Amino acid sequence: MLCRFSDFRYKEVINVRSGTRMGYVCDAEFEWPEGRIRALIIPGKPRYLGLFGREDDYILPWECISRVGEDIILVESDRGIRRGKRPKKPLF
User: What pLDDT sits at residue 73?
Assistant: First the structure.
């Protein structure tokens, strides 16, 4: 199956172990010289209707991903999935 990164943005990520819907892929971490995907990044849930920002993002290592389907990505993880904050961009 041939897949572009832009196609990943429309795939929902589900944790198979807990059965939770994590969201949609927004970004990825790459290893530059090899061109491999190291991790997929999924934005955290919004807090109070999005007025108070978001929770930390999910950072899923590529080793945790078990299946990539046409419209879904299945993740298997026994341990807690790493969470991280996005770097803040200056306004000016």
Answer: 93
